[in-house]
Amino acid sequence: MKPRSHDPQRLDVVALAADGARLEGGWPLAGFARLLDEHPVEAAPAAGEVHWRARGFQRAAAGSAPQVWLELEVRAEVQRRCQRCLQPVTITLQVRRRLRFVDGEAQAAALDADDDEDDVLAIERALDLHALVEDELLLALPMVPRHAHCSAPAAGTPGDGAGGVAQAAEAEAGEAAHPFAALANWRARARPQ
Question: Would you say 155 and 91 are in contact if contact means Cβ atoms under 8 Å apart?
Answer without folding.
Answer: no
